[in-house]
Amino acid sequence: PVLAPLGAKIHEAKDGNELERQLEQDGPFDLVITSSQLPVQSGLQVLARARARGVSTPFVVVTSIHQYLLRVFVSDAEGTVLSSRVVDGDNLRTLASNLIEAGRNRA
């Protein structure tokens, strides 16, 4: 629901292996939002492996959830770690929108 206003097409993965497969077979994507606590491979492990293969998709990795706040780790399309910060739903939507827009401007 937080990302619905962006008009995003959303793919879901049950674990890190499925996420990695989707990146390889169904990509490229405008943005990946994943969890650091995915089973099998964490979102951070998938991010590292994707960058090693040259995947430039921006990643937002949720590292913890407390009430309505998310702690996220952000890596832009160049692979630069932008920050680890706490965001709410509105901030997440803005962050996602900015990362998608920056990626489209690069293409």
Structure at a glance:
This protein has 107 residues and is of the alpha+beta class. It contains three helices and four strands, in the order αβαβββα.
Account of the 3D structure:
This protein has 107 residues and is of the alpha+beta class. Strands 1-2-3-4 form a four-stranded mixed sheet. Helix 2 (43-52) links the parallel strand 1 (32-35) and strand 2. 23% of the residues are buried. 36% of the residues lie in helices and 24% in strands. The protein has helices at 16-26, 43-52, 89-106, and strands at residues 32-35, 59-66, 69-75, 81-87.
Distance between the termini: 27 Å
Assess the beta-strand content as a share of residues: 15-25%
Shape, per Cα inertia axes: globular
Please tally the β strands and state the result. Answer: 4
Alpha-beta classification: alpha+beta
If you compute it from the alpha carbons, what radius of gyration comes out, rounded to the nearest whole angstrom?
Answer: 13 Å
Helix share of residues? 25-40%
Q: How much is the average pLDDT?
A: 86
Count of helical regions: 3
For this structure, the quaternary state is single chain
Largest sheet: 4 strands, mixed
Spatial sequence of strands, sheet with the most strands: 1-2-3-4
